[in-house]
Amino acid sequence: MKIFLDTAVVDEVREAAKYGVISGVTTNPSLAARAGVGGVEGYKAAVKEIASIVDGPVSVEVLSLDAEGMVKQAEEFSKWAENVWIKLPSTPAGFEAMARVVKAGIPVNQTLCFSVNQALIGGCIGVTVVSPFIGRLDDSGQNGMELVLDIKGIFESYCIETRVLAASIRHPLHCVEAAKAGADIATIPYAVFKQMMNHPLTDAGMARFMQDWEKALKK
Question: Mean pLDDT, consecutive 10-residue segments, the chain of 219 residues?
């Protein structure tokens, strides 16, 4: 399973990229707003800088709500960098836009997916990835990881090439569960990425090693 970083903060991308395991980045208007990115031009600048840091795809979400506007923005945003994927929502207008954008040869990340039916439509259209939102489903009392399992199983059964990107990851266990469920990609916040590298027994082991070494030096 590949790991993407879910952020619009350039410094977080730069820091995470040092570890050599980040294969891409996902962004959206909410993340851009939290990062203090101002307007479309600010969003564009942030995306271009992020795209220069990572070798993999950078997902950029459209801001329009109607199909015509989504297609226009998809064509515009896709020119910001060579590795841009366009995020289109799992709505009737979004699906209409997906069909046209995919036909134009632009990679599409189907976002805000909450059902197998929505994923099937995107898969039949031929989107690059479909993004089931795990955490938000869990918040509503449903099992988000079951959706990943169902989508992955159906896609494999029918040889649908669309990949499954587990999104709305809330904690490290979500990453483990996504991998077990067969997700091709998990996109995670920077804080969760840092948590994945830590374990109290590792810290205790390192402290013990250093104590033993200091004792050895005193002999």
Answer: 97 96 94 86 94 96 97 97 97 98 98 98 98 96 96 97 98 97 98 94 87 79
Q: How many angstroms separate the Cα of 213 from the Cα of each of 76, 165, 172, 186, 205?
A: 59, 45, 32, 39, 12
Q: Which residues are within 8 A (CB) of 195 and not within 5 positions of it... i.e. 6 or more apart?
A: 171, 172
pTM of the predicted model as reported, rounded to 2 decimal places: 0.93
**Which three-class secondary structure state does DSSP give residue 158?**
coil
Return d(Cα 93, Cα 69) in angstroms, integer.
10
Q: Which domains does the chain have, with CATH numbers?
A: 2-218 (3.20.20.70)
The count of C-alpha atoms lying within 13 angstroms of the C-alpha of 27, restricted to the half-sphere facing its C-beta, is 31
Structure tokens at 78: 């896709």
**Residue whose C-alpha is closest to residue 197's, from 207, 184, 188:** 188
Catalytic residues: 87
Q: CB within 8 A of 79, min separation 6: which ones?
A: none
Q: In whole angstroms, how large is the CA radius of gyration of the chain?
A: 19
- φ and ψ at 127, to 5 degrees? -65, 155
